[in-house]
Amino acid sequence: MRPRLSARRLHPRSEGSAVKPEVPVLAASVIICTRNRHDLLAGSVHSILDADHVPAEIIIVDQSDGPLVALDVPSGPCRVRHVQATPDGSSSARNRGAAEAGEDTLVFTDDDMIADARWLQSLVNTLFHARPNDVVTGRVLAGCVEIAGAFVPATVDATRPGVYIGRLSRDVLAGGNMAIRRTAFLSSGGFDTRLGPGSRFPAAEDNDFGFRVLEQGGRILYEPAAVLYHRAWRAPAAFLPLRFAYGRGKGGFYAKHLHIRDTHMLRRLIVDLARRPVRAARFALHPRRGLGELAYGMGMLRGLVEWSLGSFAPRRTVPAPVRLAR
After folding, report:
1. Helix 239-257 and helix 205-215: axis angle, to 10°?
2. Which of these, 21, 192, 49, lies nearest to 109 by C-alpha position?
3. DSSP code of residue 262
4. 86: burial class by Cβ within 10 Å (0-12, 13-18, 19+)?
5. Is residue 25 within 8 Å of 55, Cβ to Cβ?
6. Predicted local confidence at residue 21, as pLDDT
7. How is the chain split into domains, by residue range?
8. What is residue 325's DSSP assignment?
9. CB atoms < 10 A from the CB of 9, how many?
């Protein structure tokens, strides 16, 4: 089933707003997971509501400590739902958002992203022309530096569209900028709750998801017009711990897919580990980046060992879909 491109034309979102008097709405559910980052979340939501096209709904899965803090959003065509959830990590939150979604097109972003005016339209339009089991991803560019020395963990800046199939030597799916049909999301098994921020292996949940999509015969479509800006709000002191955490998640991802009869992931692991000290040497004039490469490699080894020694049996990752009253 292809996602619907709604032909509805709606009224302005708020009195006195500078937005166009008629705003097209797309039949999509945008899912944002968040925890204790209310100000960042507000910026992300407002950028989506101020775009050229808006989704039918935004579902915020909030794992913050304490009671929910309501967002001040204007009334309009897009319904904003704020769902409280236990702090089980971003993968759990994304799966919960997919289960709560009222639309068949699921779009995922993060609470520290600012959407370009054409972001949603570009993702949904590309998915509309894709195959049933495909997933669409887009560009992630660095936003403005908000505090001295702040950094952006990762960007995706390729300017040409791409279609990825089969087994790859690298990961191409950005989990904070993706669209997929509900049926494909469910058939893939959703996000593995053992991976991703807030879990024991705090990264690589999108690497794992993309790998499984490709293994099941789906494609990953890259649409450079679907642009998000990753806000540079993290303090410099967080750089090395975050690189180590990302490596730890990646090590868990490699360990999960290692198999004695299939050397694909083993080859990828060896190449990835080997290039970390090489990259560190190249960044001789940028010590922080060089140390970041080494921290990432150490994190990979840690995650690889922890996953291999632990008991991480496969389990159901996606709750049963909840169909909302429309």
Report:
1. 30
2. 49
3. B
4. exposed
5. yes
6. 55
7. 9-234, 237-309
8. P
9. 11
Cα–Cα distance between 53 and 61 in angstroms, integer? 22
Q: Would the pTM count as exceeding 0.70? A: yes
Task: Report the candidate in 205, 213, 215, 220 with the shortest Cα–Cα distance to residue 183.
Answer: 213
pLDDT at 99: 97
**Is residue 97 a contact partner of residue 81, using CB atoms and an 8 Å limit?**
no
Place of tokens 């709604």: 6
Q: Which CATH number fits domain 9-234: 3.90.550.10, 3.10.180.10, 3.20.20.140, 3.40.50.300?
A: 3.90.550.10
pLDDT given at position 318? 55
Q: How far apart are CA 179 and CA 30, in angstroms?
A: 9
* Strand 54-62 relative to strand 23-34, pairing: parallel
Cα–Cα distance, 61 to 31 (Å, whole number)? 7
Residue with tokens 């897919």: 257
pLDDT along the chain (326 residues), means of 10: 42 38 90 96 97 97 92 91 95 98 98 98 98 98 95 96 97 98 97 97 98 98 98 97 98 96 96 96 91 98 95 52 45
Q: Which helix (H) or strand (E) holds 33?
A: strand 23-34
**Which among 65, 66, 44 has a CA at the least distance from the CA of 55?**
44
Within the chain, where are the H helices? 38-49, 90-100, 119-128, 182-188, 205-215, 239-257, 264-282, 287-309
Q: Can you tell me the distance from the alpha carbon of 252 to that of 257, in angstroms, rounded to the nearest whole number?
A: 9
- Phi and psi (nearest 5°) for 245? -65, -40
State the pLDDT at residue 277: 96
Separation between Cα atoms, residue 7 and residue 27, nearest integer Å:
10
pLDDT given for residue 276 in this prediction: 97
Q: How much is the pLDDT for 311?
A: 57
Element (H, E) at 226: strand 220-232
